[in-house]
Amino acid sequence: MVNYIVGFFLITFGVSLATISGHHKSLCSVLLDEFPLGEYDPIVGFKDYVPAVLTVRCSGHKPLNFTIKLLGGNSNSQKFRYMYSPSTKGKLYYNIYINNGCIFGDGTEGTCVLQGTYQPKHHGGVQEIRFTLIGKILPNQDVPVADDYSDTLIFEIDY
Questions:
Q1: Could you give the CA distance from residue 59 to residue 28 in angstroms, rounded to a whole number?
Q2: Are 78 and 103 in contact (CB under 8 A)?
Q3: E strands within 8-109?
Q4: Rounded CA gap, 141 and 101, in Å?
Q5: What is the sign, positive or negative, of the torsion defined by CA atoms of 25, 126, 133, 13?
Q6: Which of 58-62, 72-76, 109-113 has the lowest mean pLDDT?
Q7: Percent of the chain at pLDDT above 90?
Q8: Around Cβ 159, how many Cβ atoms within 10 Å?
Q9: Which of 30-39, 91-100, 120-129 has the lowest average pLDDT?
Q10: Contact at 8 Å (CB) between 64 and 49?
Q11: For the chain, what is the radius of gyration of the CA atoms?
């Protein structure tokens, strides 16, 4: 029996701020910890989900509600995201989960979004609101060995 181990994976993230109308006095941005999915063994897969912390930093003097969506990627479906290897043309399926196992997306296809509220402190300042994201590469995938599997996703903040 041959055991294939696929190298480390890269998921890159960008931030897209939604169009702001009116005269908001508060501003939010997103920061994500590294998302180390590690090595993949198609026989064993992953035993555990891999967590990462998404931090929303808001500042200003006005309270605001925000929604965060996860967009983009190689796949046309949020439910079936995959990392792609240009060298082997292989696809390695994975996903990112929030809220007790709901797929993080834009709210369509049965996916979920993150929502929060920024309540400024008395003198303004920066407030951090943290969410836990869980990444998992799906088990039992027969994929070519490569170290260049990647995907690019975008966070959109609407407020």
A1: 7
A2: yes
A3: 10-17, 26-32, 50-60, 64-72, 82-84, 91-98, 102-103
A4: 21
A5: positive
A6: 58-62
A7: 27
A8: 18
A9: 30-39
A10: no
A11: 18
Q: How far apart are CA 6 and CA 43, in angstroms?
A: 11
CA atoms within 13 A on the CB side of 11: 29
- pTM, two decimal places: 0.81
Q: Which residues contact 5 (CB under 8 A, 6 or more apart)?
A: 39, 40, 41, 145
The arithmetic mean of pLDDT across residues 75-104, rounded, is: 91
Position of tokens 């198609």?
Answer: 42
Q: Which residue is associated with the tokens 């260049």? A: 148
Indicate the SS3 state at residue 21: coil
3-class DSSP assignment, residue 78: helix
Q: Do residues 10 and 94 lie in contact, with contact meaning Cβ atoms separated by under 8 Å?
A: no
In 3D space, the residue among 53, 2, 57, 51 whose CA is nearest the CA of residue 26 turns out to be: 57
- pLDDT digits 0-9 by tens, 4-31: 344 444 555 544 444 333 345 678 888 8
**56 contact partners, CB below 8 Å, separation of at least 6:** 28, 29, 30, 66, 68, 116, 118, 128, 129, 130, 131, 157
Distance between CA atoms of residues 112 and 118, nearest Å: 20
Contacts of 101 (CB under 8 A, 6+ apart): none
